[in-house]
């Protein structure tokens, strides 16, 4: 598997993101190794919160939330998905698969970090990957937070705006990552923050991950990942693991999933689920402090 690695200087002087990265290597599934990056903050004995980002962002997305979670005594662990952030970037779209992304995060979370009693926070692809981990390794998770995400099986049609996004990011000659993130926000995004989202991608040769991810979402019942996701739904819907459904009020892509999670997940019953106001798809960017406060309240009520 051919990979690229973003030069370190691209990550200098990031606004509000002073955290030093850690690195490990995991099997790439093709006979080689991949470097995976993460940032970690908070007391070493604090209960771990695994914060998984989605497409096309990276762990920088959680910068407003980390100080609130750590001040409350939790340990925040924010990986960069393979193909994003400081993690290695396979250069071919076909090197990316749903199963590989699940395995790469499993290897980091459990083989390398040996996380236990984890609270998962998953948004966008962070939920698609994290919910699979929670279903397949239930003994590792104490709580689940779903935020503007889903677990698609291809049995329900994706919204038209998602198809428009998929077409654009797969077919544009070059991808303006910062612009895509800003377009998924309700509140203004400053130029330096947009530049931080662009930082992992010096040119389009680094963008196979962002281009690949929409094509990995199951859109038909016989998709390669559909059966595994159906199994995950079955496990999670019966699970007593507490689940907070913390969606924004302005996400046209995943907004309809909030009610589904609240109705179908046993662990979501009897919990007061917040609606994060004046926030779009990237609610961590729009309203990270509000989302973090809701998570702290949820955990303290357990």
UniProtKB/TrEMBL annotation:
It comes from the Bacteria. Gene3D superfamilies: alpha/beta hydrolase. Keywords: Hydrolase. InterPro entries: AB_hydrolase_1, AB_hydrolase_fold, Epox_hydrolase-like, Haloalkane_dehalogenase. Residues 48-157 form the AB hydrolase-1 domain. PANTHER family: AB HYDROLASE-1 DOMAIN-CONTAINING PROTEIN (PTHR42977:SF3), HYDROLASE-RELATED (PTHR42977). This is Haloalkane dehalogenase.
């Amino acid at each position: 598997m051919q990979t690229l690695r973003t030069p370190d200087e691209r990550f200098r002087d990031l606004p509000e993101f002073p955290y030093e990265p850690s690195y490990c290597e995991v099997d790439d599934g093709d006979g080689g190794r991949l470097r995976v990056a993460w940032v970690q903050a908070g007391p070493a004995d604090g209960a771990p919160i695994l914060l998984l980002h989605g497409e096309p962002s990276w762990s920088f997305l959680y910068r407003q939330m980390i100080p609130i979670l750590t001040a409350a005594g939790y340990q925040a662990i924010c990986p960069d998905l393979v193909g994003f952030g400081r993690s290695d970037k396979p250069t071919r779209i076909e090197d990316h698969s749903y199963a590989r992304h699940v395995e790469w995060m499993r290897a980091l979370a459990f083989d390398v970090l040996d996380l236990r009693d984890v609270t998962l926070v998953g948004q966008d692809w962070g939920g698609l990957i994290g919910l699979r981990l929670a279903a397949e390794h239930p003994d590792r998770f104490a709580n689940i937070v779903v935020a503007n995400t889903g677990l698609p099986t291809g049995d329900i049609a994706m919204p038209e705006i998602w198809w428009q996004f998929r077409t654009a990011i797969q077919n544009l000659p070059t991808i303006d990552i910062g612009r895509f993130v800003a377009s998924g926000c309700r509140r203004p995004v400053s130029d330096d923050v947009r530049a931080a989202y662009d930082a992992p991608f010096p040119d389009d040769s680094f963008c196979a991950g962002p281009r690949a991810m929409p094509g990995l979402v199951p859109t038909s019942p016989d998709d390669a990942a559909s059966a595994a996701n159906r199994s995950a739904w079955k496990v999670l819907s019966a699970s007593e693991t507490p689940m907070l459904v913390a969606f924004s009020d302005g996400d046209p892509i995943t907004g309809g999933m909030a009610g589904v999670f609240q109705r179908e997940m046993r662990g979501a019953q009897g919990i007061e689920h917040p609606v994060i106001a004046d926030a779009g798809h990237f609610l961590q960017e729009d309203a990270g402090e509000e989302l973090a406060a809701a998570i702290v309240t949820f955990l303290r009520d357990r």
